[in-house]
TrEMBL record, chain A:
It comes from Xanthobacter tagetidis. This is Xanthine dehydrogenase family protein molybdopterin-binding subunit. The keyword Oxidoreductase applies. Transmembrane segments: none annotated. Residues 25-136 form the Aldehyde oxidase/xanthine dehydrogenase a/b hammerhead domain. SMART domains: Ald_Xan_dh_C (SM01008).
């Protein structure tokens, strides 16, 4: 990386993250900090049954309470708004913010109570009387495939939202020709990102200007468009304020139903309305759960452990409405073979409805579950061939010189050097010593295991999975824009056009613009205009902002620099090619007199007579960036998905007491290659947070529903998050393979750590219990599951010894 | 989620008095934790209003209680169903009274199901909460007889 970093002044430099100051000092500005004159508060009444017909709603007792203004029901809201957007072609899976006639999961919103305070609204919720007639329900994905299962949406006709079979390459032939095959099933439990800040929105309607103002804890593409469409108002009557800090998201902050509800109430009541979820509302009915997926995998390989072909069936339990869940089966197609040279793949993507809460996008958009399935396959192939699990990966890795590498499903990987990253990690940990440490722990009577995961982070997010899964969708652009303005005093303001949920976009934009213009990043102001003043942008999804916003900043700054050069050259009487831009000044390539920043700014803003002909006054530039690669529609089930592919290699040592079963991570090393790093602190923070998130998915976090369709893990007493007690010290080994498709060679890192940690930790536990002939095939692997499985295995082995 | 309850308690009252008490809405209102009112709506059918708190959530519930298969003064079958904004529940139980040293032995066995917010928030403690509520019921019931015994002594 040092050779790369030497090319840059600010990019890759050890510079502070500018946002951190306000967050650390407690001066972020969140939705909960927005207080408007006359603002009313909303509490939500959730359904108690997994499926029920709503017979009647009687709000009279609630409305009789002083300070209670309104009780909104699904019937009124559905009459006044259009249904929420549905990405799939499933028109009869209709979704409104409040249940209409029928509830489809326990916790689904049934009514909203508006009062002077949130506390009063909550009290009044208890007075709203709803009578239900219970209906049959289901919670299991496999049950949903049965045509006789109770349909969550009777009008849709079945519980199947999506069932698409892809075959890329000669799968049957490769299976027939391979001497070895194995099959297995693994299950990814329903977890999510559960940000500290729940979702919140403030909506205000001004009837005189016919303007809806929205402040929200949002991370959602096309948010203003979706609000306008649902409310049946022109989109230029909606103004979303982006100068709100978002307290965590990683995909789930997509409260469109919250927003439509609050906006409708603001219009209906003529007063600003705030809806701020409490934890219970967020967990039960916030529609922010992540994938819940069963993988059935077959792999065909040879005695040397070379995997030639793979069949994967992914069955996802989407919950009660389509949401974004089905697309999370589509995105992993862009890295369906992981970092391996698997020649052909058959992939069946199935998404079904059940009576559970709705899924939303979660970090990696389905990639981490897929990586868990692929890595489990590699572990099993290694075991079957008697090969070391690192060796089997090395043998299957795409080699450095083979990039750009076209995978069977149509994506061309940009670059990578997987073997070198692995070598660096093994040298860093002293691998034989790590194995010796594991064996020493085992000799002491502990269970100990080493876990390995090698995987990719596709980054630069386009939306190519949408047309791939829904032929009616023809989206081929997923742009991001930046505008730079230099004012008459020479100060620089850069506008970015989305909210941020902790990704450090202000630091990113300032660093890139400063790099190109060769000026001090700390002097650059970053502004987030409201949506009506915005250029087209798609928010930080798909690990894309270093690539896309970074790219837009780069190109806008290049345009500005070119204009400064033209102005300077003209004033100095030089041909443009004879002039040179350096550190904000323009002079002759040959040296001599130069015009500094102030002089150039002065000409642009005040001396039209000194500007080159046909030059607009002022100093302003914009760039609307198209995602590099991936500009065409899918063909034959193949498409170029994301442009860049970061690589991570996890090596973990886990130890546990065989009776207690509580895993303790003794060592955690990750080799990470995300190309050119723009800010090392941001990348480090993403990686550490991602590993913590992955640790949660591997060992702790799950939205559990009981057989009666009730969610049992509604608070942090039962939905367990990793804390500093569980989180180990992480050692990061860097490597830099620049991407040829981006301006600095950068790739994404917003999902780093999370994409491989669950696979690595699972692999470590399986290594630890291998001596008992058992393995775990379902995440999360809770302490109880470990101790029960080990105890049962010990009983079996002692019975065998005695018999 | 499902809840099972089973147990037996000795009460310082003969089976006949205990039976009468257990069929008296006024006594039950005093003894059932959180019970505010209990109104007879028909033969062996009652409507109850309760105010309860479980873990982080609390609230009011309305429910119905029905008695059946009565064999005075020995056994009775009770079915309960109720709901409030914070949850719903239903259950059935059977109790049996037998004479015992120091009064009567009241044995009970029941199974219930609760759902809604209460089930999710309180699931890890619902078992112990329900035992606690049963305990409070019997403490109150014993007090009824201590009271009347004391009263009887004064008369």
């Amino acid at each position: 990386m040092s050779a790369e970093a030497a090319r840059f002044r600010f990019v890759s430099a050890n510079r502070r993250v500018r946002e951190d100051r306000r967050f650390v000092a407690g001066h972020g500005r969140y939705v909960a900090d927005i207080a408007l004159e006359g603002m009313l508060h909303v509490a939500i009444l959730g359904a108690q049954h997994p499926a029920a017909r709503i017979l009647s709603i009687d709000p009279s007792a609630a409305l009789a309470m002083p300070g209670v203004h309104y009780v909104l029901t699904g019937e009124e809201l559905a009459g006044a708004t259009d249904q929420l957007m549905n990405g799939l072609d499933t028109p009869n899976v209709r979704r409104f913010p409040l249940a209409l006639g029928q509830t489809r999961y326990a916790g689904e919103w049934v009514a909203a109570v508006v009062a002077d305070t949130r506390a009063l609204a909550e009290d009044a919720c208890e007075k709203v009387k709803v009578s239900y007639e219970r209906l049959p329900y289901l919670t299991q994905a496999e049950e949903a495939l049965d045509p006789s299962s109770p349909p969550v949406h009777p009008a849709h006709g079945s519980n199947v939202l999506l069932d698409k079979q892809f075959v890329w390459g000669e799968v049957d032939r490769h299976f027939a020709e391979s001497p070895r095959q194995l099959s297995f099933r693994v299950t990814w439990g329903r977890n999510s990102t559960v940000p500290i800040e729940t979702f919140g929105v403030v909506a205000s309607w001004d009837p005189w200007s016919e303007m809806l103002d929205v402040w929200a804890s949002i991370q959602m593409p096309k948010y203003p468009d979706q609000i306008a469409r649902a409310l049946r108002i022109p989109a230029n009557n909606v103004r979303v304020h982006h100068d709100v800090d978002v307290g965590g998201s990683y995909g789930v902050k997509r409260g469109i139903k919250h927003t439509v509800l609050a906006a409708h109430l603001a219009r209906r009541l003529g007063r600003p309305v705030r809806l701020l979820e409490d934890r219970l509302e967020n967990m039960r009915g916030g529609d922010a759960h992540g994938p819940e997926r069963i993988f059935d995998v077959d792999v065909a390989f040879d005695d040397a452990g070379i995997v030639r072909s793979m069949k994967m069936r992914a069955l996802d339990n989407a919950g009660a409405y389509a949401g974004r869940a089905p697309f999370q089966l589509g995105k992993p197609i862009g890295a369906i073979v992981g970092p391996y040279k698997i020649e052909s793949v058959a992939y069946r993507a199935q998404s079904v409805t059940t009576n559970k809460a709705v899924q939303e996008a979660v970090r990696g958009f389905g990639q981490s579950p897929t990586n868990y399935a692929i890595e489990t396959a590699l572990d099993k192939v290694g075991l079957a061939c008697g090969l070391d699990r690192i060796e089997v990966r090395r043998r299957n890795f795409i080699r450095k010189e083979e990039f750009p590498y076209l995978i069977p499903s149509g994506t061309r990987y940009d670059s990578g050097d997987y073997h070198t990253v692995v070598d660096k990690v093994l040298a860093h940990v002293d691998y034989p010593a790590l194995v010796a440490e594991r064996d020493r722990l085992r000799a002491e009577g502990m269970l100990a295991g080493i876990g390995i995961a090698a995987c990719l982070e596709p980054s630069g997010g386009n939306s190519a999975f949408e047309p791939l899964l829904n032929e009616k969708n023809e989206t081929t652009t997923w742009m991001e824009s930046v505008r730079i303005n230099v004012d008459g005093t020479g100060c620089v303001a850069v506008t970015i056009h989305t909210t941020s949920s902790g990704q450090g976009h202000e630091t990113l934009a300032a660093t890139v613009v400063a790099e190109v213009l060769e000026i001090d990043p700390d002097l650059i102001r970053i502004v987030r205009p409201d949506s009506l003043a915005c250029l087209p942008s798609n928010t930080p999804v798909g690990s894309r902002m270093a690539i896309m916003m970074g790219g837009a900043c780069f190109h806008a700054a290049q345009k500005l620099k070119a204009k400064l050069l033209r102005i300077g050259a003209h004033r100095l009487g030089l041909a443009p090619e004879a002039a040179r831009y350096q550190g904000g000044s323009v002079g002759a390539v040959s040296g001599g007199q130069a015009l500094d920043w102030a002089a150039l700014v002065n000409i642009a803003h005040r001396n039209f007579h000194l500007l080159p002909p046909d030059t607009e006054p002022g100093l302003e530039s914009t760039h609307v960036m198209q995602v590099p690669t991936g500009t065409s529609l899918p063909k034959d089930g193949r498409v170029q998905m994301y442009p860049c592919h970061s690589f991570e290699f996890h090596l973990v040592l886990v130890a546990l007491d065989p009776v207690l079963g509580k895993p303790e991570i003794r060592r955690y090393v990750i080799g990470h290659d995300c190309g050119t790093v723009i800010n090392p602190h941001i990348v480090k923070g993403m990686t550490l947070g991602g590993i913590a998130h992955g640790l949660g998915a591997a060992l702790l976090e799950e939205f559990v529903y009981d057989e009666e369709g009730q969610m049992l893990t509604q608070s942090f007493m039962d939905y367990l998050l990793p804390s500093s007690h569980e989180m180990p010290k992480v050692e990061i080994v860097h490597h830099c393979t620049p991407s040829p498709f981006t301006v600095f060679g950068q790739k994404g890192s917003g999902e780093s750590g999370y994409l491989g940690a669950p696979a690595a930790i699972s692999g470590a536990l399986n290594d630890a219990v291998a001596e008992f002939g058992i393995s775990f095939d379902k995440l999360p692997i809770r302490i109880s599951a470990i101790s029960d499985a080990v105890a049962a295995a010990r009983v079996r082995s002692s019975e065998e010894t005695t018999s | 989620m499902k809840i099972d309850l089973e147990g037996s308690e000795t009460i310082a009252a003969d089976p006949e008095r205990l039976w009468l008490a257990l069929n008296d809405p006024a006594v039950l209102t005093r003894c059932i934790p959180g019970c505010r009112t209990m109104t007879e709506t028909g033969p062996d059918a009652y409507k109850v209003e309760m105010q309860l708190r479980v873990a982080a959530v609390g609230g009011s519930f309305e429910g119905e209680i029905a008695l059946s298969d009565k064999t005075p003064p020995r056994t009775c079958h009770i079915s309960v169903s109720g709901s409030g904004s914070l949850g719903h529940g239903s259950g059935t139980a059977r109790f049996e009274i037998t004479p015992a040293e120091g009064g009567s032995l009241l044995a009970y066995q029941g199974a219930g199901e609760v759902g809604g917010l209460v089930a999710g928030v309180g699931q890890r403690i619902l078992g112990s909460v329900s035992k606690h509520l049963v305990g409070r019921f019997f403490t109150a019931l014993r007090k009824e007889f201590e009271g009347s015994a004391a009263l009887g002594a004064a008369e």
